[in-house]
TrEMBL record:
Keywords: Glycoprotein, Membrane, Signal, Transferase, Transmembrane, Transmembrane helix
InterPro entries: Heparan_SO4-6-sulfoTrfase (IPR010635), P-loop_NTPase (IPR027417)
Location of the protein in the cell: Membrane
Entry-linked PANTHER family: HEPARAN SULFATE 6-O-SULFOTRANSFERASE 3, HEPARAN-SULFATE 6-O-SULFOTRANSFERASE
Signal peptide extent: 1-21
Gene Ontology molecular-function annotations: heparan sulfate 6-sulfotransferase activity
Name listed for the protein in its UniProt record: Uncharacterized protein
């Protein structure tokens, strides 16, 4: 390439940056070339001996999938440390562990070992979007009840620390703070007002002032103080930004719409690639780029070791187990965040005797420090992205060697700063008591760090810490709607495929047939390693859940996770209420009432994800067929989750259920 073209390009790029909404054709061409040049690393087949990376798309029940399935199926000595707020690996290319999960996008894969295998879960984008809206509001609403001097719980990765919630939750907090107090200042007239409400699928009338519920109202009640207040639409009310407004808001485009495709492409808002935002602009502006990248995403996903879908969560779990060379009867292992590679569970390192859990005094004083360090990590990441963008611009514009060298150094420096910042955060976190997510650190202790971790690993009971993990508000509040397929009326048109588009592009690796063949061969030859990454033989009994297996543990764990997230959701949302007693309550019934126009709007913003999800369904069906052929298909029994009906006085936000007998008597008395 001559010198002139890049110079011209740089000018165009500069212009396009200022008009981010409309990137030029030339800029998009350059970015596409750059993308294809830099992002060619693909997932490799899983052999049982290579790193498995779970690309966790937010709101796909990925948390359940990871904690209740992948983690339990993986011996603790082979698991990587938790990685939701930041990757806690000291050496990305040689992580010394075999199961890693994070909300990072595919751009992280280029930093992982060359043979890393990848798996993911996809979801109907409409359900995913609704779920994200509901979840962000739920978490944001908790801030309404917090005292002014509220301090974050120590040692937990708060949802607010995890992308994309790190943006969405403050966004909704600000929205709620501008709306809720005004609504709650309204004063009810004497005698109150009757309002139509819905709870556990029942509709009835409630009068907050009288604290009374009724199935039917008398004429007098019906006209009391201006009449009956209508049922509150949780997706459209005065307390919080409506679903429609949110779907049209730039932040939804930035962080949610087509998010699964962007994550697979490695071009999300959280990408390690500095030009990701511009490139997303190109996909939006130019149909040819969009189509091309959809094809890249599909080809990429076809190389994944497992692709499942949230709407078939239990089938996906069974398929994943088969795809990873296990069976649903394989052993399940418990263990919390400390039960990771290097901290026990191998014959070489197992020691006897249980230690008492240590508590560090002054743990709460670490809270502020942790928050600061987490902030520094985010800032360092931002600086790295900026530095990368500048370097790429300079390279494109054929800037002089000195300048490029300078910028390159700046990128290296920024990268090192990010690593340092992450290390500091990890180290500080490790000083927390173990039950708060740290290593139980106690600086006065003379035991070594690893020894302490090992003792803690031994001490933890055999069962159950994974529940706390899901429910305790670690990243866990995923609320995996296990059985909730939500409003999915418009799914059928998703079949339309840009399948043919591939031919035009040299990048396309191999036909679907071939890819599928590769995967088939791969999962038949998997032999799960029986050592940790250092070659120490695993202790097969370590943290093994007695008399159980993966399938049983998955069902138990997934159902429990859902039950907890349901009840937590209800409690959190109780803060979002009118003085008349009506509150924002997301439910299946309420989803069904969302106007088609709003659903169509969301769909129209998620065309890529709709197609990717369709491919996911197709791949899952195919994989199940392959497993059946191989005699390795063993479905996980889906047990419908039991809903608790009726009031539980202890839970906040519950309305009293109307008492039918009493009401009938009332009625009869009135008629006398
Ligand atoms: C990371 O591991 C690789 C492969 O073992 C090694 O070559 C490299 O030096 C390591 N990097 C660091 C920073 O330890
Ligand atoms: C409202 O009535 C129910 C019983 O119908 C009772 O359990 C609840 O405590 C009452 N709430 C208030 C705020 O008085
Ligand atoms: C409420 O009214 C409906 C008809 O309008 C009636 O069928 C039902 O029995 C009534 N319920 C009670 C508890 O009175
Ligand atoms: C990510 O999105 C947030 C919210 O829209 C925005 O403030 C931030 O600048 C974006 N970051 C990048 C790197 O694009």
């Amino acid at each position: 390439m001559g010198l002139r073209a890049p110079v011209l390009l740089a000018v165009l790029l500069g212009m396009a940056r200022q008009m981010a909404a409309q990137p030029s054709h030339a800029e998009c061409q350059a970015l596409t070339d750059h993308y294809l040049d830099k992002h060619h690393k693909e997932a490799e087949p899983y052999t049982g001996k290579n790193l498995l990376y779970f690309l966790h798309v937010p709101r796909t029940a990925g948390r359940t999938f990871h904690s209740c399935l992948l983690k339990m199926a993986t011996h603790p000595a082979r698991r990587c440390p938790k990685a939701y707020d930041h990757l806690r690996l000291t050496n990305m290319t040689n992580p010394n562990c075999f199961l890693l999960s994070s909300h990072d996008d595919f751009s992280v894969v280029s930093m992982l070992p060359p043979d890393a295998a990848v798996l993911t879960q996809l979801r109907d984008p409409l359900d995913r979007f609704l779920s994200a809206y509901e979840f962000a509001i739920e978490v944001a609403s908790r801030s309404l009840k917090r005292p002014k001097n509220y301090k974050k719980k120590v040692g937990r990765i708060a949802t607010e620390d995890v992308w994309p919630w790190s943006y969405l939750i403050p966004f909704f907090q600000a929205d709620l703070q501008s709306k809720v107090p005004k609504v709650q200042d309204q004063v009810l007239p004497e005698g109150g007002r009757w309002a139509e409400v819905e709870q556990d699928g029942d509709r009835f009338y409630y009068n907050k002032v009288l604290n009374k519920s009724k199935w039917n109202l008398t004429e007098e009640e019906r006209t009391l103080n201006g009449g009956v207040l209508p049922l509150l639409d949780p997706y459209n009310n005065e307390l919080v930004m409506s679903l429609k407004e949110f779907a049209e808001h730039p932040i939804a485009t930035e962080l949610l719409h087509n998010g699964a495709t962007f994550q697979v492409l490695g071009i999300t808002n959280y990408s390690h690639w500095g030009d990701a935002a511009q490139f997303r602009g190109c996909l939006k502006a130019q149909a040819s780029v969009e189509e091309h990248m959809l094809q890249v995403a599909k080809d990429r996903v076809r190389r994944f070791s497992h692709v499942g879908t949230t709407d078939r969560l239990f089938d996906s779990a069974a398929a994943a187990v088969g795809s990873l060379g296990l069976s649903t009867d394989s052993p399940a292992y418990s263990g919390g965040d400390d039960d990771v590679a290097g901290h026990g569970g191998t014959r070489a390192s197992r020691t006897s005797g249980g230690a008492q859990r240590r508590h560090t005094r002054g743990a709460s004083s670490l809270a502020a420090q942790l928050q600061l360090l987490a902030k520094l990590v985010r800032e360092a990441r931002q600086r790295l992205q900026t530095a990368q963008t500048e370097l790429v611009d300079a390279q494109r514009s054929g800037g002089d060697h000195g300048v490029i060298e300078l910028l390159r150094n700046r990128v290296d420096k920024a990268r090192q700063d990010l690593i340092d910042a992450q290390d500091k955060l990890s180290t500080t976190r490790d000083q927390l008591p173990a039950d708060l997510g740290g290593a139980g650190g106690d600086s006065s202790s003379d035991t070594s760090y690893h020894h302490r971790r090992r003792l803690l690993a031994e001490e933890e009971g055999s069962h159950g810490s994974e529940e706390g993990d899901i429910a305790s508000g670690h990243v866990g509040e995923e609320g995996a709607p296990v059985t909730d397929t939500g409003a999915d009326g418009a799914g059928a048109d998703s079949q339309a495929d840009a399948e043919g588009a591939g031919e035009q592009y040299p990048l396309d690796s191999e036909g679907e047939e071939e890819a599928s063949h590769r995967r088939r061969l791969a999962f038949r030859n998997i032999e799960v390693g029986q050592t940790d990454a250092f070659g120490n033989p695993l202790d097969p009994e370590f943290k093994k859940i007695a008399n159980s297996n993966i399938a049983a543990e998955f069902v138990r764990c997934a159902n429990r996770a859902q039950a907890r997230s349901n009840s937590r959701r209800e409690q959190s949302l109780a803060a979002l209420s009118y003085p008349d007693g009506r509150s924002v309550l997301f439910s299946k019934a309420a989803r069904k009432r969302i106007p088609a126009e709003v659903l169509d709007l969301i769909r129209s913003h998620n065309k890529l994800d709709t197609q990717l999800h369709a491919l996911g369904l197709e791949m899952l069906a195919k994989r199940i067929e392959e497993l059946k052929e191989a005699g390795n298909w063993d479905p996980v029994p889906e047990q419908p989750h039991e809903r608790r009906k009726g009031g539980d006085g202890k839970r906040t936000g519950r309305l009293p259920r109307p008492d039918e007998e009493e009401e009938k008597i009332d009625d009869e008395l009135r008629r006398l």
